[in-house]
Design brief:
Layout (H helix, E strand, L loop, with lengths): L2 H29 L8 H11 L6 H12 L4 H22 L9 E2 L2 E2 L1 H4 L2 H21 L6 H15 L4 H11 L6 H11 L1 H13 L6 H28 L2 H4 L5 H4 L5 H5 L1 H17 L9 H12 L3
Antiparallel strand pairs: 1-2
Helix pairs in contact: 1-4, 2-6, 3-4, 3-10, 3-16, 4-6, 4-10, 7-10, 8-9, 10-11, 11-15, 11-16, 15-16
């Protein structure tokens, strides 16, 4: 591909990404309770935690998966909002002193710093509940049973067999050395489960896919979910706080097992590249419809923040 064509493709992707991010900001602002609605302090903190920040990788994946099945954008923004609300709640709880004790998130003070610890705890609880309210009160699939499966998929991804379980393993592993299968077990749950749910929910908003196609799409999501965490580990070790928008070097400071501690930064980055190739190979049967998903795999692995 000529350089001008590459630039055109990159420009198109960035425009698409900006459009989805803006759409999601509006959708989330609409779906969150107004800041002046009682209890006002809690609602203000919920909006603080969710709006005006983040790459919105999970909503981007939901929209990209939706392109495979010709899903209406109105459905996708609701499904993507549910996933993003779960993600926002996880960040609020993850930053609390009883977890990682983070002071900076998305370039601003974390919720427990800006408000207080009890409010941060309630923000996470309320955002998690709102996610399932949003997912259940809008029609997102033609078949009610399919929508119920969407609710179940997000619940499993959020719970003890998904994100919460991965966080529990993470806490138990502090100060220990994990081998690569153990790291994968942890991160496929802690980080990867919600990323996989974003792809599943996006694909569920349109025309049904054959079982083989769903399996390939899920394999793609598993690969990019794990790659996201591998790159996060590399960036935590090598990037600055200003670049990341959160405190850099926390993993080493807290003696957490990471792909960098297990493999070294260079091998970890190479592993992420291999996961990207595997993810993109799994999209072969989708042809041009999988273009956005391929581009997102590139973005996840090649990002610098």
């Amino acid at each position: 591909m000529a350089r001008t064509e590459v630039k055109a493709v990159e420009s198109d992707f960035m425009a698409w990404m900006g459009s989805v991010q803006a759409r999601m900001e509006n959708a989330l602002a609409r779906l969150l309770p107004a800041a002046n609605l009682a209890p006002a302090r809690l609602h203000e903190a919920m909006r603080y935690a969710t709006l005006e920040g983040g790459k919105r990788v999970r909503p981007l994946l939901a929209f990209a998966a939706g392109e495979l099945v010709e899903a209406p954008a109105q459905r996708l923004e609701v499904a993507a909002s549910a996933v993003e609300l779960i993600h926002a709640y996880s960040l609020v709880h993850d930053d609390m002193p009883c977890m990682d004790d983070g002071l900076l998130r998305r370039g601003k003070p974390t919720v427990h710093v800006e408000f207080d610890e009890p409010t941060a705890l309630l923000v996470g609880d309320a955002l998690g509940s709102l996610a399932f309210q949003v997912l259940s009160e809008h029609r997102l699939a033609d078949d009610p049973a399919a929508q119920l499966d969407m609710v179940k998929a997000l619940a499993v991804a959020s719970g003890s067999r998904g994100m919460a379980g991965g966080q529990a393993v993470d806490l138990e592993s502090t100060g220990k050395t994990l081998d690569l299968p153990e790291l994968e077990f942890m991160h496929i749950r802690k980080t990867g489960a919600i990323i996989r749910a974003a792809v599943v929910l996006g694909a569920a908003c349109g025309k049904p896919l054959p079982e083989t196609a769903r399996a390939r799409l899920d394999h793609y999501a598993k690969c990019v979910g794990l790659a996201f965490q591998v790159v996060d580990d590399v960036l935590d070790a090598e990037a600055s706080t200003a670049t990341l928008g959160k405190t850099a070097g926390k993993d080493a400071k807290h003696h957490k097992p990471t792909y960098v501690s297990a493999m070294g930064a260079a091998r970890a980055q190479a592993f992420a590249e291999a996961l990207r190739a595997d993810a993109q190979a799994s999209l072969a049967e989708f042809g041009a419809r999988g273009a956005r998903l391929r581009q997102l795999a590139d973005f996840i692995v090649l990002r610098k923040f």
